[in-house]
Design a protein that fits this description.
- This protein has two domains: 116 residues, Rossmann fold, CATH 3.40.50; 114 residues, Beta Barrel (OB fold (Dihydrolipoamide Acetyltransferase, E2P)), CATH 2.40.50.1020.
- It has 253 residues and is α/β, with parallel strands linked by helices.
- The two termini are 24 Å apart.
- Helices cover 28% and strands 30% of the residues.
């Protein structure tokens, strides 16, 4: 049987706040939240700027506004692009207009409670499209998706466009608002529902067989007790509502 997967789409985080207590609070919120990883923390904007200019990376920047030498808003205006999703954290509500002109993801007012922090994180996740559009010429479009043999697509995984070869994907499993693409070598967690994949995948050999599964029919090695046997010892159930249509299609492959 396929192993259950419960991990959230991971986000790496950087915290910047000159107030030590506030900084420690944000670090604590990050470390206790599933799916978040603290990769660095700074007491001033200059150190943060140097980190990103030196090639440092993060998915989410939790940024104080009022800091000496370089304010949060000033830092945002000179951060190397593309920069992380930004959530501003400040005790001054009157910065909100300036903040959103800089296209930040969210704006938290101190003292920040954990429930509000979680809502902000989930909003950041919702802003990260999973199925990334790829510019193609008319000739390429006629041949199918961009990639070797027309069977690869670019997906946004961990804030990076990653080429995924769908010939290697055994099945896709629903996990709340995420989906997990399972290959023999690894599992890709993507912020997209299974319904999104069902509607947008351009590959006819991926078929919905269960409310929680789509399967690559080219990888089916056998069927036993309404369970599809796949390479690597994986099994995927075929729900009763999908059986007639699936077996009819399977016989026609």
């Amino acid at each position: 049987m396929a192993a259950p997967l419960t991990a959230l789409l991971p986000l790496t985080c950087v915290v910047v706040d000159d107030n030590e207590m506030n900084r420690l609070m944000l670090e604590h919120f990050v470390t206790i939240t599933e799916g978040l990883t603290l990769v660095n923390s700074f007491a001033d904007g200059v150190a943060c700027l140097n980190y990103f200019r030196a090639g440092g990376q993060a998915d989410l920047l939790l940024l104080d506004i009022s800091m000496p030498e370089l304010t949060g808003l000033e830092l945002l205006s000179i951060l190397p692009k593309p920069h992380p999703e930004v959530v501003l954290v400040t005790s001054h509500r009157d910065y909100a207009i300036d903040a959103f002109e800089l296209h930040v993801s969210d704006y938290l007012v101190k003292p920040v409670d954990y429930a509000r922090f979680i809502r902000s994180v989930e909003y950041v996740r919702s802003r990260r499209p999973a199925l990334a559009p790829v510019a193609r010429s008319a000739a390429q479009a006629a041949d199918g998706p961009l990639g070797t043999g027309g069977n690869t697509l670019f997906l946004k995984i961990n804030n990076r466009l990653t080429r995924v070869n769908f010939d290697e994907v055994l099945y896709i499993e629903a996990m709340s608002v995420y989906s997990v693409l399972v290959t023999l070598k690894q599992k890709h967690i993507v912020y997209a529902t299974l319904k999104t994949f069902e509607e947008k995948l351009p590959f006819a050999h991926f078929v919905r067989v269960h409310r929680s599964y789509m399967v690559n029919t080219h990888c089916v090695e056998g069927v036993e007790d309404n369970h599809l046997q796949l390479p690597g010892g994986y099994e995927v159930p075929v729900a009763k509502a999908y059986q007639d249509d699936f077996y009819r299609r399977l016989r026609g492959i």
